[in-house]
Amino acid sequence: MDRFSARLSAADALRANEEHVRRFAPRLARESRGSAPKCEVEFDLSGSPQVATGKHRGLSRPVWIFVAVALVVGFLAWPEKESPEYDGKSLEQWFREACMVRGNDLGPSWKLAEAVKAIGQPAVPFLIRKTRYRDSFISATWGRFTSTFPTLANRFDPPILREYSVRASAYGALEQMGPLAKDAVPDLMKVLRLPANTPALEDHLLRAVIVLGAIGPDAESAVPDLIHVATNSSHPQWNVELAESGLWTLGQIGPRGVGAVSALTDVIASRSGRLRVAAAIAFHKIDRQTEMVMQVLKEAIEGTDVEAAIASARGFLEIDVPDQVALPLLITALNRPEAKVQLFAASALGSRAKAAGDAVPRLIELFLAEDSIAHGSARRTLAKIEPPTGETIHAMAAYVADAGRRALDRAEAAQALGEFRSNAAAAVPALVSALEDGDPLLRLDASFALWQIEPARVEQTLAILIENLRGSNPFHAYRAAIRLGEMGFAAKSAIPDLEQALQRRYEWDAAHDVVHSALKEVKRQSNERR
Fold first, then answer.
1. 70 or 34, greater pLDDT
2. N or C: which end of the chain has fewer CB within 10 A?
3. Can you tell me whether residue 393 is helix, strand or coil?
4. What pLDDT sits at residue 346?
5. CA 24 and chain centroid, separation
6. Is residue 140 predicted with pLDDT exceeding 70?
7. Is the pLDDT of residue 223 over 80?
8. Which residues contact 435 (CB under 8 A, 6 or more apart)?
9. CB of 174 closer than 8 Å to CB of 117
10. What angle do CA 314, 320, 326 make, to 5 degrees?
11. Which residues contact 288 (CB under 8 A, 6 or more apart)?
C-alpha cells in the first residue's frame, strides 16, 4: 500500500468512527480546562479512537519502583562466570579478598599470587577481564565522597571494590605468574595500542609493559609494540619511567628480542642518562656484548648524572659479566656519596659475594652508618661473604650489644651472625647479653643465632621461641614459627605448642600459614629420624 492509499484509509477510519469521537467530546472539554492533565485522542489498529491522559500514560510509579528493584536484585543474583578454584575457594573469592579496599590498605595480595601460580594458565582469562574493570556507580560515588569528606569517611569506611585496586591486583597477579601468563600476551599487546583518550591509559601501559617483562622470552611477539612504547616520545602518555620499563622488558625477552637491536642502538647513540643505561643493559641481554655495556655503565658511574649512576649500579643486578670486570666499578659506585647508588652497589656485590672481599671495609662503614638507606643491603652482603673477616664479626657483635641502636636493626645483625655458624663464635658474649634485652624480637633472633653458632644451646633457644609463639603479638609468633621450622628435628619438642598455635585466630593471615608450614616441616623431619 502506498502512502496516498494509507492516508485515504485513515480518513475512512475517522469518518467511520465519528460517533465514537462525539461520545468522547464532553470528556475532552472537561479535561482541557484548568489544571487537568493533557488529553490526547489516539487510534488503535482498528481505527477506534482511544483517549489517553497524562495521568494514565506510561507506567505508574509503583510499577517503576518494582521494575527498578527487580533489576537490582537480578543484577546482584546474576551468576558470575565460573572461575578456577584453589584451596577450596574460587579465584573470584581470592581476588576479591586481595583487592578489597578499606581506607588505603589492600588485602592479602600474596595469597592471590599463590592461588594464580597454583592454578596456572586457566587463571589468565579471568585476570585479563579484571584489568578492564570499571568502577560501579556506588564505588565511584563513594570515592568522590571520601575525597570530599575524608575525615567523615574514615569513621565509616566499608570495604569496597575500586577500579584502581582491581586493576593493580589483576596486573600484579599476572606479573607474579611470570611465564605462566604467556597466554595474556595478545591482550597485553592490545593494551599497548589503546587510543590516547583511554581512561587511566598511563597506568595500563606501565603495568602491561611490566607484565610482559615478567613473561620474558614468550613475549617476543610484543617486541614491535614495546619498541614503539619505549622510543615514541611524541605519544601523549610517554614518559621516562614508561620508556625505561619498555627497555627493561625488551631485555627480559632476551635473544628472542633480536628485532629490537637496531632501535636499542639508536637509543644508546641518541639518548643520555638512565635511558641510555637501560638501552645498553637490554642490548647486552639480547646480544651478549660485554664491552659496549661496560663502557656505558662506566661512564654513568663515573659521571655527574645521579639517576644514570643509580641505574648503572642497579644494572649490575641484571647483567652477567665477569667479576674482575664488574667489581672495580661496583666499588667505585660504593664510594659515591649518593645513598641510592651505594644501596644498589652493595646489593650487586651481594650477588658476587665470593669475589667481594675487597669491598668489606667500605661495606662495614655503610653497615655502621645506621642513617644510611644502604645499611640493610650492606649487612646482607656482609653476611654472604664467607668466610667472614674478623672485622665483620667484631662490627656486627658490637652492633648487637649497642643498646643505643634500634632493636630491629640489632635483631637483624644477630641474624647475620647466626648465618656465619661456628665462624661467629667470637660474637657469643654479645648475643648472650642480648637475651637480657627488653625487646622480644631481639631476644628471639639472638637466641636463634646462638643455636646456629652453638647447637648445644637448643633448650635455651626453644624456650624463647615458644614464649614468642604463645605471645599475643602475631608478628613475633610469625618469626618464632619461621625459626622453629628452620630448626626442624631439633624443634620436635615444640610440636604440641605449634599444634596449639595452629588453632589460634591471628589477625595476620601470614602467621597462621607460617605456623602450619613450620609444624609440617618439624613433623616431617621427626618422622624421618624414627
1. 70
2. C
3. helix
4. 97
5. 72
6. no
7. yes
8. 443, 446, 447, 450, 460, 464
9. no
10. 65
11. 255
Residue among 59, 318, 80, 104 nearest 213 (CA): 318
Gap between the Cα atoms of 408 and 240, Å rounded: 36
Q: Annotate 345-375 with b (16+ C-beta within 10 A) or e (fewer).
A: bbbbbbebbeebeebbebbbbbbbeeebebb
Q: How far apart are CA 169 and CA 126, in angstroms?
A: 12
Q: What average pLDDT does the chain have?
A: 85
Calculate the CA 436 to chain-centre distance. Answer: 39
Best CA proximity match to 308, nearest among 274, 336, 340, 280: 274
* Contact (CB, 8 A) for 178 and 216: yes
Q: Where are the domains of the chain?
A: 3-53, 454-530
The mean per-residue pLDDT over the stretch 434-446 comes to 96
Interval 296-306: pLDDT, tens: 999 999 999 99
- Residue 394 CB burial class (10 angstroms; 0-12, 13-18, ≥19): middle
Distances from the Cα of 291 to the Cαs of 298, 325, 348, 349, 424, in angstroms?
A: 11, 10, 19, 20, 40
Task: Name, in order, each residue with C-beta under 8 angstroms of 229's C-beta and a sequence gap of 6 or more.
Answer: 192, 205, 209, 235, 238, 242, 243, 246
Tell me: cis bond preceding 387? Omega within 30 of 0 counts.
yes
At 105 the pLDDT is 46
To 5 degrees, how large is the angle CA 190–CA 192–CA 194? 70
Cα–Cα distances (Å) from 525 to 82, 363, 488, in that order, read 40, 38, 6
Please state, in angstroms and rounded to a whole number, the distance separating the CA atoms of residues 257 and 80. 39
* DSSP per-residue codes, 411-452: HHHHHHHHHTGGGGGGGHHHHHHHTTSS-HHHHHHHHHHHHH
Cβ contact 282:250 at 8 Å: yes
Overall residue count recorded for the chain in this entry = 530
Distance CA 439, CA 252 (A): 44
Which is it for the CA torsion 113, 116, 120, 123, positive or negative?
A: negative
Backbone torsions φ then ψ of 90, nearest 5 degrees: -75, 160
Share in percent of the chain as helix, strand, coil (round to 5): 75, 5, 20
> How remote is the C-alpha of 375 from its chain's centroid?
25
Report the pLDDT value the prediction gives residue 70, as an integer from 0 to 100. 66
pLDDT of residue 143: 53
The rounded distance, in Å, linking the Cα atoms of 214 and 172 is: 10
Distance CA 128, CA 111 (A): 18
Annotation: CATH topology of 454-530? Leucine-rich Repeat Variant (1.25.10)
* Pair 47, 16: CB distance under 8 Å: yes
Query: Contact at 8 Å (CB) between 237 and 196?
Result: yes
Residue recorded with cell 644501596: 343
What SS3 string covers 459-470?
Answer: HHHHHHHHHHHH
